[in-house]
Design goal:
Layout: H1 3-19, H2 31-38, H3 42-51, H4 54-79, E1 96-103, E2 106-113, E3 117-119, E4 129-131, E5 152-154, H5 173-177, H6 180-196, E6 204-210
Antiparallel strand pairs: 1-2, 1-6, 2-4, 3-5
Bound molecules: 2-acetamido-2-deoxy-beta-D-glucopyranose (4 copies).
One 2-acetamido-2-deoxy-beta-D-glucopyranose binds next to helix 6.
């Protein structure tokens, strides 16, 4: 008998938590306001972190991590409607990214690693992976099973891949993707490499996904 009021309180709390989006579109959460705050310099953040308690540091850290996960999950939407539709969206390796384009009923993705990382498998003569009816709509990959196309391991040397498969120093995948000019350069470079291999355009569903 006492359980019912408790359940009502719990479920209305759950509903409230779900619909608490009233302030989401207010100016304080506009892109400009939000990104401006996050552009705080390392030096300034160090000063603040030294002033905050360990608990406060942990509080901010856990919230940033939570939000990073949301953003990571969200970016998959960009490439998810790519053709051919039968091809699964490939999994992006962490510490790098995938540049992908479609042409003539085929999907092509070039794995790339960030500065300080190298491919777990030798792929110097293997620029990209592909998915089409010719592969039964599954991804070619050196890895066993699943949709993971490559692995980027911590490494001070870059020997396993072609030079164009590494992001430049100080410009990892996310930094590249944060600037549409840099993002387009990376995608254009891949298209040039494809057409040099007689895989010609027009290219559609062009995108860069970061891990
Ligand atoms: C919305 O913002 C106002 C003003 O900042 C605040 O008082 C209110 O509690 C917020 N509402 C929610 C549901 O977060
Ligand atoms: C790269 O990382 C994978 C997965 O963590 C691991 O299995 C593999 O041994 C690593 N390869 C090298 C060369 O370090
Ligand atoms: C695709 O599937 C067919 C029928 O199951 C099979 O004969 C063929 O070898 C497969 N092709 C590839 C590239 O796996
Ligand atoms: C994007 O990158 C280009 C080339 O490095 C640079 O000139 C431009 O200022 C950057 N744009 C933004 C908004 O950071």
């Amino acid at each position: 008998m006492k359980l019912l009021p408790l359940l009502i309180v719990l479920s209305s709390a759950a509903v409230q938590a779900q619909t608490d989006l009233t302030n989401c579109s207010s100016p304080q959460w506009s892109y400009d306001e939000f990104s401006e705050k996050l552009k705080i310099s390392d030096e300034c953040m160090e000063v603040l972190a030294a002033q905050w308690t360990e608990n406060q540091n942990a509080d901010v850290f856990s919230n940033l991590n939570r939000l990073a996960d949301v953003l990571k999950k969200n970016q998959k939407a960009v490439c998810k409607d790519a053709t051919p539709k039968e091809c699964p969206t490939p999994a992006v390796q962490s510490k790098g990214g995938l540049v992908c384009v479609s042409t003539s009923g085929k999907r092509f993705c070039k794995p790339m690693c960030n500065e300080g990382y190298d491919f777990g498998f030798l792929r110097i003569s293997r620029l990209f992976e592909t998915c089409s009816d010719a592969t039964n709509y599954s991804w070619t990959t050196q890895l066993v099973g699943g949709n993971k196309l490559a692995i980027c391991n911590k490494s001070s040397i870059r020997v396993a891949g072609a030079s164009s498969t590494y992001f430049p120093a100080n410009q990892d995948c996310w930094t590249t993707k944060s600037n549409s000019t840099l993002e387009q350069e990376i995608i254009n470079a891949f298209e040039n490499e494809l057409s040099a291999k007689n895989v010609n355009g027009p290219y559609t569903h062009r995108c860069l996904m970061c891990g």
